[in-house]
Amino acid sequence: MGIFKRLRDLTMASMNDLLDKAEDPVKMLNQFLRDMEQDIQEAEVAVAKQIAIEKKFKQQYEEAEEMVGKRTEQAMKALEQGNEDLARRALEDKKEHQTRFDEMKRQYDIAKTNADQLRNQLSDMKDEFSKMKNKKDLLIARAEAAKAQKHINQAMSGFGTDNAAKGFDRMSEKVLQLEAEAQASGELRSKGKSLDDELDQLGKSDGIDDELAAMKAKLAEKKQ
């Protein structure tokens, strides 16, 4: 592909090499794309110059071609008027323009071939740049996903560690101790009732016996 392909290959080789060492792939990828854009701009300037050369030779060979036709007509007109000397001089000048035409046409063909090749190479560079932009978006998405996963993994690395497990064990033991203390205090309170408390409790009723006695009395009245 010529100089542009070599330039692109060097850019890609540098990209792959530096990505291996890059601390931040996102910043590096953006920098590589900026470098490729600069390469494309320089290539566009080179192509524009070659196109200008092509157009210059085209203009020159067309002018020479026009003069060849013009001198041919003038030579014929001079012969028709019996001026052979003038006709000869017209043909001599025609020959010079023909020589110039042949040379300019040859140079134009070369320039056009070069310009067409550079156009194609520039188009390839732009296509490659577009592919790299799409690839950059994919790589950035992957990089961001990897960063997020790394952060989550780091955050979760503290879960279930020895310190956390020991801390939960200590809290479990403390809760058990509090429950045992609560139960013990209840038992102590129950054992600490006085004789008067127990005697007072004997006289207390929950009202069920009274209600049951009343219902029995009503039933007896109905039977009578």
TrEMBL record:
It comes from the Bacteria. InterPro entries: PspA_VIPP1. Keywords: Coiled coil. Residues 183-207 are annotated as: Disordered. Residues 188-207 have a biased composition (Basic and acidic residues). The keyword Amino-acid biosynthesis does not apply. Belongs to the PspA/Vipp/IM30 family. PANTHER family: MEMBRANE-ASSOCIATED PROTEIN VIPP1, CHLOROPLASTIC, PHAGE SHOCK PROTEIN A. This is PspA/IM30 family protein.
